[in-house]
Design goal:
This protein is an alpha/beta fold. Helices cover about 35% and strands about 15% of the residues. Strands 8-7-6-9-10-11-12 form a 7-stranded parallel beta sheet, with helices on both faces. A 5-stranded parallel beta sheet has the order 2-1-3-4-5. Strand 6, helix 7 and strand 7 form a beta-alpha-beta unit. Bound molecules: glyoxylic acid (GLV).
């Protein structure tokens, strides 16, 4: 029996490659840069499996170009790049990589929060510039993090990992979410529920941990920024379009908030020029980027693909109805 043909839009990691190569006839995109769309569409023509990154849009156009496709395995937990309805209509299973990146992502949201509060970007720039004249009493004074109020928007796995870290910093933790967390979780994390407006008004740091959905697109708009404290900071490691970037820039210009630390952007890799300012820390979508975690993500994607071709249920199906119907 010939092995199923699979295309991976990245060379992945050795551990994932071994899993795939044992079960599939796999072809990789190996260039440093992301592949052009037409190249991917050409490559997937005869493929039954796909391992893709969040930079690839898996939509009708894509699926039309891949008539034999049975599975699209995203190497990410967020799957806003995948049109699930289109996949389901064509009987294509879509999978993601939940669970393995929560702690790593929360680590990075904390990295950003600490960096913007303590003006690390500006300090690093000064230290490297050759212009540092030595210690001075009021030099680059930032804002304390410990003891402050952290508002978490979206209290799923990553939001809760964010809250857990706040315990050691003696912070007051508030959260808002469509679903209230169970009492034992709230108690263990010493967190309190607030409606959105109260959370905006009370928090010193607001960290976003919601998926990108039609409901969360543009969630952080001008009225939200106007409700925040002028001393407060916004942290975004979720998805760029959750924040209206033009409104954020306007709020920063008007001094409505103190600063922001961002890992994600509305139109990656484009970064709004108004965000390139000293009180905004910018990272290039790195929150899950530890070697350990990215390896685990690739392995999960590989296991999802291999499971399907072995006739098993892929563990991380986003549209399980596809297999139930079959
Ligand atoms: C990264 O952004 C992910 O969704 O895993």
């Amino acid at each position: 029996m010939p092995k199923p043909k699979v295309y991976a839009t990245h060379p992945l990691f050795e551990e994932a490659r071994q899993i795939l190569e044992a079960a599939c006839d796999i072809e990789y995109w190996t260039n440093e840069e992301r592949p052009p769309r037409d190249e991917v569409l050409r490559r997937v023509k005869d493929k039954e499996g796909l391992i893709c990154l969040l930079t690839e849009k898996i939509n009708d156009e894509f699926l039309r170009a891949a008539p034999k496709l049975r599975i699209a395995a995203n190497v990410a937990v967020g799957f806003d790049n995948i049109d699930l309805d289109a996949c389901t209509k064509r009987g294509v299973v879509a999978t993601n990589t939940p669970g393995v990146l929560d702690e790593t992502t929360a680590d990075f949201a904390w990295t950003l929060m600490m960096a913007v509060a303590r003006r690390l970007g500006e300090g690093e720039h000064l230290a490297r510039s050759g212009n540092w004249k030595g210690w001075n009493l009021d030099q680059l004074c930032g804002s304390d993090v410990w003891g402050k109020t952290l508002g978490i928007v979206g209290f799923g796995r990553i939001g809760r990992a964010m809250a857990r870290r706040a315990l050691g910093f003696q912070m007051k933790v508030l959260y808002t979410d469509a679903v209230k967390a169970p009492a034992d979780v709230v108690q263990a994390l010493n967190a309190e529920y607030r409606d959105m407006n109260s959370l905006l008004a009370e928090s010193d740091f607001i960290s976003l941990h919601v998926p990108l959905t039609p409901e969360t697109r543009g969630l952080f708009d001008a009225p939200k920024f106007y409700r925040m404290k002028p001393t407060a900071f916004l942290i975004n490691t979720a998805r760029g379009p959750v924040v209206d970037e033009a409104a954020l820039v306007a709020a920063l210009d008007a001094g409505k908030i103190a600063g922001a630390a961002l890992d994600v952007y509305e139109n990656e890799p484009f970064i709004h020029p108004g965000l390139k300012r000293p009180n905004v820390v910018l990272a290039p979508h790195l929150a899950s980027a530890s070697t350990e975690t990215r390896t685990k993500m690739a392995v999960i994607a590989a296991n999802n693909v291999v499971a399907l071709f072995k006739g098993q249920m892929p563990p991380n199906m986003l549209n399980a109805s596809v297999l139930k119907k079959a």
